[in-house]
Amino acid sequence: MKKIRLVGVFMMAILLTIAAAACGQQQTTSLKVAEVTRSIFYAPQYVALEKGFFEEEGLEVELNTTWGGDKTMTALLSDGTDIALVGSETSIYVHARGANDPAVNFAQLTQTDGTFLVAREEVKNFQWEDLNDSTFLGQRKGGMPQMVGEFVLKKHGIDPQENLNLIQNVDYANIPNAFASGTGDYVQLFEPTASIFEQEGIGHIVASFGEESGHVPYTVFMAKESFIKENEEAIKKFTKAIYKAQQWVEAQPAMETAKVIQPYFEDSELDLIATVVDRYKSQGSFATDPILDEEEWNNLKVIMEEAGELPEDVGHSTLVNTSIAEEIINE
């Protein structure tokens, strides 16, 4: 009789273990994320993946690189992805086209422009007026890099259309190759390309567009309004994991962050990654919390309007949801 009871207890324990495991599996939520490009600029996102911050929240995150704002937003609006990491200006473009289910910004990742001005020749004591009458290889018209670049140039009294030989017909992915092949006296580049060019003697970093333009919601996690409403708990967990990563990056030396994110940049040396992380960190490019505040949103609209790319004046509360991020920070 005792033997039968012991077997019964043993079987019950096994069933309870299986049930617990099944419950654990049910609690895991899968999310698809599309990033507009692969960049050290997005270091906190990779930290959240590598340090297991998403897993701690019961999330399984599938990251895909969609290479371009248009492709990223197409993926989001067509339900090819749940969350998009892209410039917040794209949400304004979508709203202006009369979207019934707008893309809503819910967690900010970067808060400055991430590009640098690279000169072909070494320029001692660089002044912005040195650009006058030069050939400038710029970014795609209508994108944040181009708009910020134009905003900064005008801030320094330079009219890109009048004072420069401006080249804007080169695809984003081909801009570095065009400069390396001899096109342009100056070019606007992201990292790590800017630092690689400097190491290889192709060009010299002379200024930061991020430092010059101030805080803007440059790269933001967004999702369709309906998705956020239907998956509020998952969005909250996602935002919490990003916040953990932001705080971790802020607290750690650049080299520690570089070691964690190196698997995402296998073609880049560890020291170079650390240099780029330190450069972005020192100029405050990485947001230290996910809140996209109204002042930053208004700065974005000023930059877009200056570039002639603001289709309509969209209020902060229309396309930005700060309640989730605020709740997490206040916990």
TrEMBL record:
<dbReference type="Pfam" id="PF13379">
    <property type="entry name" value="NMT1_2"/>
</dbReference>
<protein>
    <submittedName>
        <fullName>Binding protein YtlA</fullName>
    </submittedName>
</protein>
<keyword id="KW-0732">Signal</keyword>
<feature type="signal peptide">
    <location>
        <begin position="1"/>
        <end position="21"/>
    </location>
</feature>
<comment type="similarity">
    <text>Belongs to the bacterial solute-binding protein SsuA/TauA family.</text>
</comment>
